[in-house]
């Protein structure tokens, strides 16, 4: 098959609303009747067909709504039995180890009728054994999409520049957008779709999770506060994204900002690749640990989220992830539903190569 036969990758629209589904939407089922199962004829139209997903800002607010609606529908079991990605394949490229990312993308492709192949960095050697651009040009001729869990955002940018198939950010040093889809699905399960003005307080390192929370605040209107020690603030370019969008983000090192939060979120203090800074970071973040006592200070109906893995004794304790306000394991489950929804909206319009 020549490359000309593949659908061209579409640029992300700046303000253009996504195409409306031409097929009827199926109403949510009642508890007594069980889920109303979709059929190939009643699936929603993919809204991001052929595009890359390197950042949450690669989608519009309307496209985010479509993806989350699909994720909720998948969690309700309404997609059981349909295989919209039948005959399609996804390469899973890992520079960093993974439990949730590998399992959920692999299982997600299987449940949608497709196939996933896992490639470790020992097998590929991104940028060492082979140029990133050469890896991209090879993969695009075999697979229909690429998910990368990598050290550098620039690696994903290069993959996307040179591959004609969708490239998905499964994690980088800068952003973790797929995780935030699952996070906001979890938040919507608690509060509904209208999240404007809800207080999302992120406590800890101003890392890829903090950066992606800021991007989601831009898309959803949530009031994002980042509580972090001096010197560990989110990326300046991401903060500028918020300024350009006219969205206020509160930065503070005052732990009192946690009080009254609708959502309290934390992540590890020491990410993969930062082991040499472990002692310095533990001293800097002392006091920023989420405990049951801290959870008592958030809103009465507030929830606690952590993307996992948890380094118990550092950013949190087992009593917090097992607390009645914790939704940590619902959040982990939603990685499967949210990423399946994303893959459908990126790849659902593709035809098998064979």
Automatic annotation (TrEMBL):
Carbamoyl phosphate binds at residues 149, 176-179, 307-308, 335. One of its GO terms (molecular function) is ornithine carbamoyltransferase activity. InterPro entries: Asp/Orn_carbamoyltranf_P-bd, Asp/Orn_carbamoylTrfase, Asp/Orn_carbamoylTrfase_sf, Asp_carbamoyltransf_Asp/Orn-bd, Orn/put_carbamltrans, OTCase_ArgI. It is found in: Cytoplasm. Residues 51-188 form the Aspartate/ornithine carbamoyltransferase carbamoyl-P binding domain. Residues 1-21 have a biased composition (Low complexity). The keyword Hydrolase does not apply. Residues 1-37 are annotated as: Disordered. Keywords: Cytoplasm, Transferase. The keyword tRNA processing does not apply. Its EC number is 2.1.3.3. Pfam families: OTCace, OTCace_N. Pathway: Amino-acid biosynthesis; L-arginine biosynthesis; L-arginine from L-ornithine and carbamoyl phosphate: step 1/3. Residues 197-346 form the Aspartate/ornithine carbamoyltransferase Asp/Orn-binding domain. It is an enzyme of class 2 (transferase). It catalyses: carbamoyl phosphate + L-ornithine = L-citrulline + phosphate + H(+). L-ornithine binds at residues 208, 267, 271-272. Belongs to the aspartate/ornithine carbamoyltransferase superfamily. OTCase family. HAMAP family: OTCase. This is Ornithine carbamoyltransferase. It comes from Deinococcus petrolearius.
């Amino acid at each position: 098959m020549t490359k000309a036969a593949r659908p061209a990758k579409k640029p992300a629209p700046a303000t253009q609303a996504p195409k409306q589904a031409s097929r009827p939407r199926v109403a949510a089922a009642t508890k007594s009747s069980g889920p109303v199962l979709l059929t190939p004829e009643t699936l929603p139209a993919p809204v991001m067909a052929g595009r890359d997903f390197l950042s949450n800002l690669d989608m519009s607010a309307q496209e985010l709504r479509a993806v989350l609606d699909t994720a909720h529908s998948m969690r309700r079991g309404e997609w059981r039995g349909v295989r919209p990605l039948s005959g399609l394949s996804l390469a899973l490229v890992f520079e960093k180890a993974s439990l949730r990312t590998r399992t959920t993308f692999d299982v997600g492709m299987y449940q949608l009728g497709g196939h996933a192949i896992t490639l470790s960095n020992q097998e590929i050697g991104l940028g060492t054994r082979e140029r990133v651009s050469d890896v991209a040009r090879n993969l695009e001729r075999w697979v229909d999409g690429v998910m990368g869990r990598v050290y550098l955002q620039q690696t994903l940018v290069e993959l996307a520049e040179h591959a004609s198939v969708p490239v998905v950010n499964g994690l980088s040093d800068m952003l973790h957008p797929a995780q935030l889809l699952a996070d906001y699905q979890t938040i919507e399960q608690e509060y509904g779709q209208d999240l404007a003005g809800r207080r999302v307080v992120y406590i800890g390192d101003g890392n890829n999770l903090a950066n992606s929370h800021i991007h989601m605040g831009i898309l959803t209107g949530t009031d994002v506060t980042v509580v972090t020690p001096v010197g560990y603030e989110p990326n300046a370019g991401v903060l500028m994204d918020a300024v350009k969008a006219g969205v206020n983000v509160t930065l503070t090192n005052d732990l009192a900002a946690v009080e009254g939060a609708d959502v309290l979120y934390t992540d590890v203090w020491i990410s993969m690749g930062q082991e040499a800074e472990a002692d310095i970071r533990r001293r800097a973040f002392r006091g920023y640990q989420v405990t049951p006592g801290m959870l008592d200070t958030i809103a009465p109906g507030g929830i606690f989220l952590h993307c996992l893995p948890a380094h118990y004794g550092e950013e949190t304790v087992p009593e917090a992830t097992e607390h009645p306000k914790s939704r940590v394991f619902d959040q982990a489950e939603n990685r499967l539903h949210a990423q399946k929804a994303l893959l459908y909206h990126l790849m659902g319009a593709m035809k098998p190569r064979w």
